[in-house]
Amino acid sequence: MNSLYKFCILLGIATLLFASCDDEYGPRKESTPVIQSAGITPASFTFGDSITLTASLIDPATTLSMLDYEIVSENRVITSGSIPVNGETVEVSHPIFVPLLSNQADNANVKVNLVVTNILKGSVSSEITDLTGKRPVYNQLYLVADDGNVAVLKAQSADKYVGSDLTFDSSFNFKIAEKINADNTIDYSGAVYGNVNGKIAMIDEKGESAFAYTPNVDYTKSFTYDNFAFSVTAAGSALGADDIALSAFGEQDVYNESFRTLTRKLENGKTYTLVGKLADKVNVYNPDFFERTSNSKVKFLGETGEYTIYYNPVRKNIIVGVDNPSYPQYLLACGYGLGYPTNVTSAEIAAVYSGHQRTHTDWGFGHVMNYVLLRRVSEGVYQGTFYTPGDNDHYAGFKPFENTGWGNEKKAGSFTFTGEKIITGDNDWTIPNGDNDPRIESTNYRFTVNLNNNTVHVEKVTL
Predict the structure, then answer these.
(1) 180, 206, 237 - which closes a domain
(2) pLDDT tens digit sequence for 155-174
């Protein structure tokens, strides 16, 4: 009886031990997965594009868990990854981006190594061969600096792309793009190259910028990108008398905003070269004083003389000031609701300078943001281009004067206004915002004041 009792106990223990070999997947059974078929489409592709891995996997005894792949060419792993799978029969269709690596040969043999595992670590390996990878060929590329400057890199040979006559800073962060959008931002549907672990490589939207430095120069004048070796070569130059670069600017606080300033002689009709951030396409140069002939060139329209150039890195505009501006060279408009042109929104300005907006004038002449200049463009005729009215209240009330001593005010009632019907009033030049007043669009307007016949022409302008 005791022997029978002991036998039953041992039998129960054995049953428990056997049951412990079960888990959430049921009784464990050692098995090997089977790759019934696997392929890559297209079989001939361009590095930098995506291919599709398809596979039929089966393991009738044990649940499948993972499909690992690596894409190999010239004994280098180009890319690798893992695809989670689940079940005893699995159909896989998975896109894989195949980057271009440095020194990658054209028309290269490519293979894909596959490893399929199940939950009990059973595995099987396979490979897909007879694949061909081709090097991409670009008609041109774009050098896109982080500061907003963009330059075309023209194809010089199969893998060399060159940008010349540049005005980039001597050091800058950049990406190289196959495509850009209309606003000069990168279109990531094309190839993009940047920094990966200190070297140039293909990147996506999350990728970092690479860095270029041209020693012993004031600015970078040429840039060569080698798309085979993934290397760059830059050359530069010293600043000339007609070059304008932020390296020559000082710093000044005006209107509780930070400006970069430079006092220098500017000559009527002369073209000046803009270097670095000053050549950013988004910058607006005061159109009454500058004609922007290209991203990196401006022609000065004012009279020859000494001026202070003011660059506002938040507003991204460039204005000029003169000591004691006065008639007959200038009229000065002060009051509420005027601002020098900028394409930066009031919200973007206020995010940096609380309470500030695109308009900035006030009653007074204490600094260059209190008033705006109207430049003499012909005898007795003055031109000023301003943003008005204010975005916050759609109101403006201002008046031109002949000097900073409030001399010879120009009352609205003394003039006949033509063009855009935005000004009312007999004294101040007013854009009203009353309940019964029409809502005037806040935008850039050009005022042409003719003191010969006491007329003012107002027109909208697009900058």
Answers:
(1) 237
(2) 998 899 999 999 999 999 99
